[in-house]
Design brief:
Layout: E1 4-6, H1 47-58, E2 65-69, E3 81-86, E4 89-94, H2 97-113, E5 122-124, E6 130-134, H3 164-175, E7 180-182, H4 195-208, E8 214-219, H5 223-228, H6 238-254, E9 260-263, H7 280-291, E10 297-301, H8 315-320, E11 331-336, H9 351-354, E12 360-365, H10 381-390, E13 398-402, H11 418-429, H12 435-447, H13 454-475, H14 507-511, E14 517-518, H15 537-542, H16 552-555, E15 558-559, H17 570-594, H18 601-633, H19 648-653
Bound molecules: beta-D-glucopyranuronic acid.
Beta-D-glucopyranuronic acid (BDP) binds near residues 144, 268 and 303.
Length: about 675
């Protein structure tokens, strides 16, 4: 066994964590870990190791933690690590320097959390080899569906000037095991692949590399036409394939460890192989062959819904399932967790059941496009755990999260939304972690200035744990989906029915309310989307009597007097759910207020303001949806719920005036409670 034992010699005092300065949120969960200066690092022979050393040194732990490169724990994968303890010395052990870096960050977190290394040590390896952030950042600095300012990437300044935040970003990601980043929007500009821009990308990749982060790019399928005036982008045209090969060679000459391409093709107006009468497999394989000699991959998105079937939820499966087995080995099909589009709750995408001979990866959304943007608290680990419960992580080779990161000082707009970046990284590493443990660690590493009494602490964890379900309840419970106002995806507009607009962009298409009942019949009596699922899920959701309440109106058009599993009628249950959502939003605010003494004042009041807005918005949702649905049910509200306060005509007057594809920053509403 070959062992390399390395330690730095400097002994520094443990840096006291107390920090009197106001917290602007910029330090994330690395809060009390002093930023290590990798440039002045010690004796390691590769960059990740240099960083690991300097982190330990900066934390005053250089003499009590040894980094050991060894092949002892190969079953944890090349990035895995073990942490063991021998008296006062901790040993971090990994086959790779990257693994040592991950182990170091984990050790530093545990150290700060006061968690002792157990006698039999800690072994940890990532479930997914690729754990990737997707930035929907445009080259003009805006971010599609971004709610935390402008893009981190300062394209105008690159490659000569490097923002210090690039390194802070890489460090934050490495500290939670994220090992890849797609820098630009899936609605990709062809300019991204111009030589000028590739040099800028290379400069970013140089900063990411020592932190174990690979850089990827979203590409526009018609780039050869747009950039170099080729007459076609037909994937079976040899000149097109050659163009991509040359482009790949150029990319790898600048960025030797470039990860590969992410492609949105023939979706929402983006070009793709269908434009030339070719299949997704033809398109993906052509790109994959250009990248294969360099070990690059293609992540080909399955977010497609050209209307070939009246039910949008069926489209991805209809287009991709017949192509199963036809993709090259370095193509991964990237599938959104649900069949529509990042709704507060969706059943899993049946395409995960439909592809058996093709590598797949999940696309989760960290940015809260449909969950209250940066205004609402919606801790998303429970949602992602729910997804992994239905779709085994064993069936996927990678996971992607659409980032909620911008150039705001605190990175994510809402300080609480940092928890979703953290949780994505933690679950991408180990999807079996419990969401409450992830929340608990984050609170202690990020937000709490000192340990509150146990009841306050558990109220804080509890508020994070329930927050997503609260959002589901006050926005669209019981399987309802896409009740959003046209374009901005923030407030309610269940009545929205714009003549001439694409039907499957309109709420009325999804909820199908009428005097008989509510919901989209996707069962075998309707669109039969249920048949795309494997058993036993298929039969369970297909029958209205066994379909879980949380998916009822996704799969069924249920009568208003339908008996729910709770024993209430559909109408009653709908009212109680909206009411529960409003109460839940109030509880979030209460829990936060009880924790005030243990939270930095700046963060406290920022979050409090947002939670106030959330209580107002929850009532806005309830009033709009219940008042509107009541025009169909014709029924009264149960007496024991807080009665809707505003009438439908008033609700219809609310117009945030934000159009699609702008970069909306929804104002915090004037909320006095
Ligand atoms: C939807 C967004 C849109 C994205 C699209 C996608 O509304 O801005 O471009 O998905 O994922 O969620 O391609």
């Amino acid at each position: 066994m070959k062992r390399l034992l390395i330690s730095t010699s400097l002994m520094l005092a443990i840096v006291a964590s107390a920090n009197a300065a106001a917290d602007d949120g910029s330090r994330l969960w690395l809060h009390d870990i002093p930023a290590a200066d990798a440039a002045t690092s010690g004796t390691g022979d590769t960059a990740p190791l240099d960083i690991a050393f300097s982190e330990l040194k900066a934390a005053g732990l250089a003499d009590s933690v040894y980094l050991v490169r060894s092949n002892d724990n190969k079953d944890l994968g090349p990035e895995g690590f073990c942490i063991t303890r021998n008296k006062d010395i901790a040993l971090i052990n990994s086959p790779s320097d990257k693994g040592l870096l991950y182990g170091t960050y984990r050790y530093l977190q545990l150290h700060r959390l006061g968690v002792a290394i157990p006698a039999d040590g800690i072994s940890s390896g990532p479930k997914f080899p690729r754990r990737i952030l997707n930035h929907w950042d445009n080259l003009d600095g805006t971010i599609e569906r971004g709610y935390a300012g402008h893009s981190l990437w300062k394209w105008d300044e690159l490659p000569d000037s490097l923002s210090s935040r690039y390194r802070e970003y890489a460090r934050a990601n490495a500290s939670i095991g994220i090992n890849g980043t797609v820098l630009n929007n899936v609605n990709a500009s062809p300019k991204m692949l111009s030589t000028d821009y590739l040099k800028k990308v290379a400069a970013i990749a140089d900063v990411m590399r020592p932190y174990g982060m690979q850089v990827y790019l979203s590409v526009n399928f018609a780039t050869p036409m747009a950039l170099d005036s080729l007459p076609t982008a037909d994937p079976l045209d040899p000149a097109v394939a050659e163009w991509w090969e040359r482009k790949a060679d150029e990319i790898y000459s600048l960025i030797p460890d470039f990860g590969g391409f992410l492609v949105k093709a023939n979706s929402e107006g983006q070009p793709g192989p269908h434009d030339f009468g070719r299949t997704h497999a033809d398109g993906a394989n052509m790109l994959a062959r250009a990248l294969a000699p360099h070990n690059g991959i293609v992540m080909w998105r399955a977010f497609v819904y050209s209307p070939s079937d009246p039910d949008r939820a069926k489209q991805a499966y209809l287009e991709f399932e017949p192509l199963d087995g036809q993709f090259d080995p370095n193509v991964i099909i990237q599938i959104k967790n649900g069949p529509i589009d990042f709704q507060p709750r969706e059943p899993y995408s049946p395409l995960f059941d439909g592809l058996h001979a093709t590598p797949t990866m999940a696309e989760l959304q960290i940015t809260q496009e449909y969950l209250g943007h940066a205004n609402h608290l919606a801790y998303l680990a429970p949602m992602w755990k729910e997804f992994f419960n239905y779709v085994s992580p064993d069936s996927m080779v990678a996971v992607a999260g659409v980032a909620n990161i911008g150039d705001d000082v605190n990175w994510t707009g809402n300080p609480m939304a940092q928890a979703n970046w953290w949780a994505f990284g933690r679950l991408a590493w180990d999807p079996s972690l419990l969401s409450r443990d992830i929340a608990d660690e984050w609170l202690r590493l990020s937000v709490l200035t000192s340990e509150p009494p146990a009841d306050v602490h558990s109220a804080l964890v509890g508020m994070m744990e329930t927050s997503r379900e609260d959002v589901v309840d006050y926005m669209m419970p019981l399987g309802l989906h896409h009740l959003f106002a046209f374009g901005h995806h923030y407030g309610p507009e269940p009545w929205c029915d714009i003549p001439g607009a694409r039907a499957d962009w309109l709420p009325v298409y999804y909820h199908r309310a009428d005097s008989a009942g509510l919901g989209f019949d996707r069962s075998s009596t309707g669109s039969n989307a249920s048949a795309q699922y494997a058993e036993p899920f298929r039969s369970m959701v297909d029958s209205i009597s066994t379909c879980p309440d949380r998916f009822l109106l996704w799969f069924h058009h249920a009568p208003w007097n339908h008996r729910m599993q709770s024993g209430k009628t559909l109408w009653e249950e709908l009212c109680y759910r909206y009411d529960a959502g409003v109460k839940g939003a109030d509880n979030l605010l209460e829990a936060w207020r009880t924790a005030a003494p243990w939270i930095d004042p700046e963060i406290y009041s920022d979050v409090e303001k947002r939670l106030l807005t959330q209580t107002v918005d929850a009532r806005w949702w309830r009033d709009a949806c219940l008042e509107y649905f009541r025009t169909f049910s014709g029924l009264d509200y149960p007496a024991d719920i807080e009665q809707p306060q505003r009438k439908l005509p008033d609700m219809k007057k609310i117009d945030l005036g934000i159009s699609n594809y702008e970069n909306p920053s929804i104002p915090l509403l004037d909320s006095k409670r």
